[in-house]
Specification:
This protein is an alpha/beta fold and about 170 residues long. It has a single domain, classed as 3-Layer(aba) Sandwich (Collagenase (Catalytic Domain)), CATH 3.40.390.30. A 4-stranded mixed β-sheet has the order 1-2-4-3, sandwiched between helices. The N and C termini lie far apart (about 35 Å). About 30% of the residues are buried.
Length: about 170
């Protein structure tokens, strides 16, 4: 399985605190889609087409603007995901395109750092969690309903475990 990652680093602080951020992002993406391909039935993983994901490492100001413009919430957040695929109609439309562009993920540096400090975890571990979370959203998972949230959190825990990262929800259990 080959899923391309288009990485844009808008805020240079990302490279200062996580100099190996590109390899980390590729490692997370590989772990997420390997886990999903072994444990979930997702049509884009078995389609005979190239798949791509866009990741933008940005700052609170940019994420706040996107959050305000697209979610009517005038505040920054840690990660935003904008999925391109309608999974309900995927089978009927997949043949229309040469590539499956899953969507865009934007992570806010300051919010990520603040949360990592509050949780007393490394920036690397928190980045891996947020990127995993975003990739799951692009793959059709959400956490609106309690049952869906529990399922998505369980996926996150299992995927992060394959990366050697502790359960981010341990304090909540």
């Amino acid at each position: 399985m080959n899923i391309a990652l288009d990485l844009e680093i808008e805020d240079k602080r990302w490279q200062q605190v996580l100099p190996d951020i590109e390899n980390a992002a590729q490692r997370v993406q590989k772990a997420v889609f390997e886990y999903l391909s072994q444990n979930e039935d997702l049509p884009f993983l078995t389609a005979d087409k190239p798949v791509s994901v866009n990741l933008c490492l940005s700052d609170d100001a940019h994420v706040r603007q996107l959050n305000r413009d697209f979610r009517q919430m005038d505040k920054p957040t840690n990660v935003l995901s904008f999925a391109n695929i309608d999974f309900d109609s995927f089978e009927g439309t997949a043949d229309l395109f040469g590539e499956i562009a899953l969507g865009d993920i934007i992570i806010a540096y300051e919010t990520m750092q603040k949360e990592a400090d509050e949780m007393q975890i490394s920036l690397y571990d928190h980045f891996c969690h947020l990127f995993t979370h975003g990739l799951l959203h692009l793959s059709g998972y959400d956490h609106i309903e309690a049952e869906d949230a529990a399922y998505m959190e369980n996926l996150e825990k299992n995927i992060l475990q394959t990366l050697g990262i502790a359960n981010p929800y341990a304090d909540e259990e």
